[in-house]
Amino acid sequence: xxxxxxxxxxxxxxxxxxxxxxxxxxxxxxxxxxxxxxxxxxxxxxxxxxxxxxxxxxxxxxxxxxxxxxxxxxxxxxxxxxxxxxxxxxxxxxxxxxxxxxxxxxxxxxxxxxxxxxxxxxxxxxxxxxxxxxxxxxxxxxxxxxxxxxxxxxxxxxxxxxxxxxxxxxxxxxxxxxxxxxxxxxxxxxxxxxxxxxxxxxxxxxxxxxxxxxxxxxxxxxxxxxxxxx
Length: 230
Ligand code: OAD
Prior knowledge:
The protein has helices at 11-14, 33-36, 39-44, 46-62, 67-74, 91-94, 153-161, 214-228; strands spanning 3-8, 80-85, 100-102, 105-112, 119-121, 139-143, 165-169, 190-194, 207-210. The chain is of the alpha/beta class.
């Protein structure tokens, strides 16, 4: 079976009602990223950080996967599909995709603030001050913040190296190391970019740039790929 690696960003969840990061006002849900998504913010005001991610969790749990998420799940009928997402939401999983790697963490998980390997599922909606890991330190969201390492990149690179087809959906490709993953795609791989503001130049015939919304373009591309590889 041919392997399709799909790199997704906030744009694929936009039509599910979840805001992208780089809106025109430079704020993320009315907060400066430095106030809520950095280790310094956690040191300064952990309650604010927990409150911010509690709101995101509530919003994400109310959101539903859209046509782009569900189309990617259909693709598994004909291909070995690996999703690598920068998103912290679980809309790929709820849309039916079975192989999803989260580069920047997951909103439904917490972790120890001193040992990143101690990860827990969040069953309730809210995380609270005073909830401790087994090492007796405060639990924090299992999210990769600005300025932190992205440990999953080590596993993402070999996946990208093994792709026959790559899809890049709804990402501004401004944040590294995720943005650098494309450089690891094999030279024989066909690459599709779906984003109304795609920054990928279609300078060679490996690249097909589709400047449309994901909810419209992904189902069409999935249908075409399945027809080409029944
Ligand atoms: P961005 O907000 O930077 O980019 C979102 C992209 O989605 C833009 O290129 C938009 O043009 C595109 N877009 C918007 N609506 C779309 C739609 N309906 N269909 C398809 N595309 C659409 O988000 P990311 O690239 O995901 O990191 O940001 C990368 C990382 O930066 C995030 O994971 C987050 C952030 O800081 C962390 O939290 C560590």
